[in-house]
Amino acid sequence: MDDKEFLENVKQSISIEQMELLLAELGAEPQRQGEILTCRTICHDGDSHKLYYYENTHLFRCFTECSEVFDIFGLITKIKQRENEKWNLPQSLNFIIHYFNLAPKNRDDFQENEELLEDWEIFKKYARIKRIRVIIMSSIKIHKVIRMILCV
């Protein structure tokens, strides 16, 4: 299974009900109309309900400022980039997989495809590195504050 196929499988595994819950949690105020969700334009922090999600294509379309078409990974990336400039597709994929609990539970889930299991290990390493980086940055800031206090 290649990367594009994998992303498509993840998108296909998310039901419209699950998407509705995620969008509500993100503050999109989704309103369901059959197989379409209309939402607040959270892709650019707008107030109008002109962001549409189509269940049949698993795509969003914004009918205001950005006028773009994107999938759930693109939406998460857009939202998170407003908070953190360095947010990217792998982080959005990781967010969605963990939010919907789509990560494989154990090795038996991937007996046929060991390469896929190794790919999941990368996400685990990334999460550990990120936590370490936060701890180090926090320690550096604490030391700077201590030095400022002691110098005064």
Explain what the structure shows.
The chain has a 5-stranded antiparallel β-sheet. It is of the alpha+beta class and 152 residues long. It contains 5 helices and 5 strands; from the N terminus they run H-H-E-E-E-E-E-H-H-H. Residues 105-114 have low confidence and may be disordered. The chain folds into 2 domains: 1-103, Zinc finger, CHC2-typedomain (DNA Primase, Chain A), CATH 3.90.580.10; 104-152. Helix 3 (72-83) crosses helix 4. The protein has helices at residues 3-12, 16-25, 72-83, 89-99, 114-151; strands at residues 31-33, 36-39, 51-54, 59-62, 69-70.
Order of the strands making up the biggest sheet:
1-2-3-4-5
Q: What is the strand tally?
A: 5
Taking all residues together, what is the mean pLDDT? 76
Q: Using the CA coordinates, give the radius of gyration.
A: 19 Å
Order of helices and strands: HHEEEEEHHH
Structure keywords:
152 residues; alpha+beta; DNA Primase, Chain A; 2 domains; 5-stranded antiparallel β-sheet; 5 helices; 5 strands; globular
